[in-house]
């Protein structure tokens, strides 16, 4: 019975459901509360009424109707807006989650369902020993991929049992703060730069973590490729619209898992979302490098990114390096620590550095009074709609960020035939090493779209110099910039790899090596060539990399992936303000590209370096961006929530503020300020 004095007060009954495992104890409790009672007081009352002796420290109140956590324990019920009709759940903040890693392995671990996703991913990466967690995020699988998986499971005669690595005993998983040792410069596990294995003296640092030597090996090493049949059963995007579906499921980094409808033991994908891999170091990053390599490998095998036949053979040869050599690594090879090999790994790493405009690039070498220039004979190709392409030789001069061309060298002192300003243009390689074709495709922004121009070079060295100059000019940089010579070196290195793929070598009999070539290439090439033909071509290319250390092979693979024209582009279907048809928007680390959804041709490019501000009208879900020179665009996103694109832009701006002299702590408030938006 309730006394009359209690009825006279402003008290009311609040229903709370408790998520506990004791079957003999009731789960629903009625608490008599008042509006000025704080959340901490509600939890205290509840625990006293439950009368179960256990640790309740990880429990918090979840408000089902509002889809939010009540974590500010000093706030009163009135301040939170909780009234008698509220349904509250008293449940654990850390719950089990299954994560599909880039290497397609599934791990099961405890994750905070009450922290924002940005913080949850940071904790996950501490468990997995992946530095730079800000580059990753969580992704819901696309509906088409799920449908294909269900169809596969339905057609399978045997029940599918997934091999899951259980990491639920980690200190971070248990809701405790993770040991800072894995991020500490002095306590970070060191890996062998040749084989990528953790040094035996440091593997003991994993003793408090679920990353035992065996588990670390699962995450840091590549494993046998899947069969062509398995590959055929996996979802492969066929069109740009299909590729847009792959990027629709990114979770909101500023909200918790529970707020976004994720339930205990659900499966999510952990992926590198931002394609700016900062400060890669084989001494500390064996897991991180392997997972980037695996994400690249699967993107190529499933044709999420396009590549030519030459490029596919390069990727196949570098994968075959694992298949053929990994198990046969001799003890001498494992003990081999020749400095030249380590230097090669370091050189490959220097090519992987991707810096954004606005980042801290060194300008010490730039002498404004003497900016270098290129001058050479090249051929100009202008596509014509109703006739053959016109190919003519001219004398070209590249200075600052512009290319001018003249009838011949002698007339270079006068006025040019045309001057092309490359700032903000799209630069696409048009190369076929076997056919000795070294072309540069330039898509130059003009008032009504993009002006298409091709430059044809005579040889590899000329191509590398001019291509590097074009790439820098598109970013508004000159050849005086310190990144020019590394860019030339990177291009020459990639062309050298293409030569591997095409140069005939003395090859072992393909039948004498246990290799399924179909495992190393996408289905398109499996259908085009017979198995023996593929094996012979892959082994030809492999002869050039068979002495390469495993870690360097991975880094070369990543470098080749980064050299593809489509690298780092995330696609979304949008409708621009004032347009009557849908377009594709490509979001990259340094620019936005408007693409014709039917042909795949770029229409316009806008660089982040020219962006003044961006915002979202949350009522009509429209993203508006303002650039220099009074250029403004606005669009609504049709294939995903506009918050995803808003977060992508802010995320890339945030990542451009990183520098090597910083410690590895991140300004989380700045990230949320740039990506959170005001809904």
From TrEMBL:
UniProt keyword annotation of Repeat present: no
Protein family per UniProt: Belongs to the kindlin family.
GO molecular function list: integrin binding
Protein name: Fermitin family 1
Signal peptide span: none
Keyword match Metal-binding: no
Keywords: Cell adhesion, Cell junction, Cell projection
Species per Swiss-Prot/TrEMBL record: Pygoscelis adeliae
GO cellular component: cell projection; focal adhesion
Subcellular location: Cell junction; Cell projection
Entries under PROSITE patterns matching the protein: FERM_1, PH_DOMAIN
Residue stretches making up the PH domain: 379-475
Stored InterPro entries: Band_41_domain (IPR019749), FERM/acyl-CoA-bd_prot_sf (IPR014352), FERM_2 (IPR035963), FERM_central (IPR019748), FERM_CS (IPR019747), Kindlin/fermitin (IPR037843), Kindlin_2_N (IPR040790), PH-like_dom_sf (IPR011993)
Organism domain of life: Eukaryota
Primary residence: other
Gene Ontology BP terms: cell-matrix adhesion; integrin-mediated signaling pathway
Pfam families: FERM_M, Kindlin_2_N
